[in-house]
Design a protein that fits this description.
The protein is α+β, with helices and mostly antiparallel strands. It has one domain (14-464): Cytochrome p450 (Orthogonal Bundle), CATH 1.10.630. Helix content is 47%, strand content 12%. It has helices at residues 36-41, 43-50, 73-82, 91-96, 98-101, 110-120, 126-130, 133-144, 155-172, 177-192, 198-207, 214-238, 247-253, 264-293, 297-310, 325-337, 369-372, 394-397, 416-433, and strands spanning 18-21, 24-27, 57-60, 65-69, 87-89, 152-154, 344-348, 352-354, 357-359, 364-367, 434-437, 446-448, 452-454, 459-464. A 7-stranded mixed beta sheet has the order 1-2-3-4-10-7-5. It has a 3-stranded antiparallel beta sheet with strand order 6-14-11. Strands 8-9 form a two-stranded antiparallel ribbon. Helix 8 (133-144) runs parallel beside helix 19. 42% of the residues are buried.
């Protein structure tokens, strides 16, 4: 049984705002603002509400119409694969995230994005990623060494620090505690900028400019700190002081078809993108997994059976990955319920036909893994945490895009294999040595920012088991 984090607010009944015509649905919302305030007040409840409609749903916003879909994987495939050349990242993504990510892989588009993707791709080859498994286990052991039997731990905080240490070592060959903590705190301040809702987001959506709120000012200062730290590390690598076999060194050595390398600004943008994406996704997957396991003793018992069979008394390694199948199922199920990328948006750069409907140039399509992963059409008891659903290779039997926690198509997350490997190895490392329990039975509130975070906590009690050798 899943222990679901809470969501505040309930959407209005479906029929109250829907106008159907020729089997198409149009949600008018309120005069002038459309559905913007309802979405801003509770994004997750709203997308579950709209996701009940089949087909593309037209949704009135401020000065534009948005198309929403979270019902049929076939429509998602049309957007992300079949007609991907007709779409770019939405204007909101390009505008809101430009300061943080610059022209990195997350925000760039067109030929520039394609060049950057080709330059970065070799750094994420399967064999190279496998080489980082040792770093992941070492950093997990470093974290667990600070745990004491009976400790009360903020698990999200711990998983963020662990994932940040891993990504700093694999990207930059460095992970001093003080630097990691500074970057982590600065990044959190920037990401808090994207959780602002209500009137603030309404005004910003209308004007296209951020309001000078305290949150925004703090984020600007934090962004300057991130830029200074990343730029210093890039400069040190460029000066030759670091001859390391890390991702930054690979990006610096990469050349395009004309023999040109990335500029310093491009290196900065990709490093920030890799730092954020490389730890945020994995940390959240680990947080939600441990939170679910703290309420699922029967699942933990099956994990221990797998650890005893596959690992015995030794720590996990990359070589054990093919045999940690139930552990992988647990991660898959956790990311089904709480996909870090809870919505994916695209903007049409030309008129295009999707699901038999004309989508005008400049329109935005919003797709939601969070809503689609809860569709009972594809998942029995969709709101429950049931890792066993994946045992008989459910992923291959599902329609494409019925499960897409890392996005899909040509712009699928470049670090998806890195994230999955880290989540499996670290989960095995932690649960092999520690039990986790939610003795307070907390109601965790979901905080949909760039990613799907917990607003606070979860705080779990950890109890020591036999340590592996």
């Amino acid at each position: 049984m899943s222990h679901l984090p809470s969501q505040k607010g309930n959407p209005e009944p479906l029929a109250a705002t829907a106008v159907a015509s020729s089997e198409r649905v149009f949600l008018r919302g309120l005069p002038l603002v459309g559905n913007t305030l309802r979405f801003a007040a509770n994004p997750l409840a709203w997308i579950l509400h709209v996701g009940q409609y089949p087909g593309l749903v037209r949704v009135a916003g401020i000065g534009k119409t948005v198309y929403f879909h979270a019902h049929d994987p076939r429509v998602i495939e049309e957007v992300l694969v079949e007609h991907n050349q007709s779409f770019i990242k939405s204007v909101e993504v390009r505008r809101d995230m430009r300061d943080l990510f610059g022209q990195g892989l997350l925000t760039s588009s067109g030929n520039f994005w394609l060049r950057q993707r080709r330059l970065a791709q070799p750094a994420f080859h399967r064999e190279r990623i496998a080489g980082y498994g040792k770093v992941m286990i070492e950093e997990a052991q470093n974290l667990l060494a600070a745990w004491q039997n009976g400790d009360t731990r903020d698990i999200h905080h711990d998983m963020m620090r662990l994932a940040q240490a891993v990504v700093l070592r694999t990207i930059f060959s460095t992970a001093p505690d003080e630097e990691r903590d500074r970057l982590g705190a600065a990044l959190n301040a920037v990401l808090m900028r994207f959780t602002q809702r209500g009137v603030v987001r309404l005004v910003e959506s209308t004007t296209g400019k951020p309001l000078p709120t305290p949150t925004h000012r703090t984020a600007r200062l934090a962004l300057q700190q991130i830029d200074a730290t990343i730029q210093r590390i890039v400069d040190e690598h460029c000066s030759g002081d670091h001859e390391q076999d890390d991702l930054l060194s690979m990006l610096m050595a990469a050349r395009d078809e004309e023999g040109d390398a990335m500029s310093n600004q491009q290196l900065r943008d990709e490093c920030v993108t890799l730092f954020v994406g490389g730890h945020e996704t994995t940390a959240l997957a680990l947080t939600w997994t441990l939170y679910q396991l703290s309420h699922a003793p029967q699942v933990v018992a099956k994990l221990h059976q797998e650890f005893d069979s596959v690992l015995g008394l030794k720590l996990p390694s990359v070589d054990d990955m093919p045999h940690l199948t139930y552990t992988a199922n647990v991660i898959q199920e956790s990311m089904r319920l709480y996909p870090p990328a809870w919505v994916i948006t695209r903007e049409a750069n030309e008129d295009v036909i999707i699901d038999g409907q004309r989508i005008p140039k400049g329109s935005t399509i919003v797709m939601s893994p969070y809503a689609l992963h809860r569709n009972p059409r594809y998942y029995n008891r969709p709101d429950e945490f049931i890792p066993e659903r994946w045992v008989d290779d459910l992923a291959r039997r599902l329609p494409r895009f019925a499960y897409f926690p890392f996005g899909g198509g040509s712009r699928q997350c470049i670090g998806n294999q890195f994230a999955m490997m880290e989540a499996i190895l670290v989960t095995a490392c932690i649960l092999q040595q520690w039990d986790v329990a939610d003795i307070a039975h907390q109601a965790i509130t979901l905080e949909p920012s760039i990613t799907l975070r917990p607003k606070a906590g979860p705080v779990l009690v950890v109890r020591s088991r036999n340590k592996p050798s």
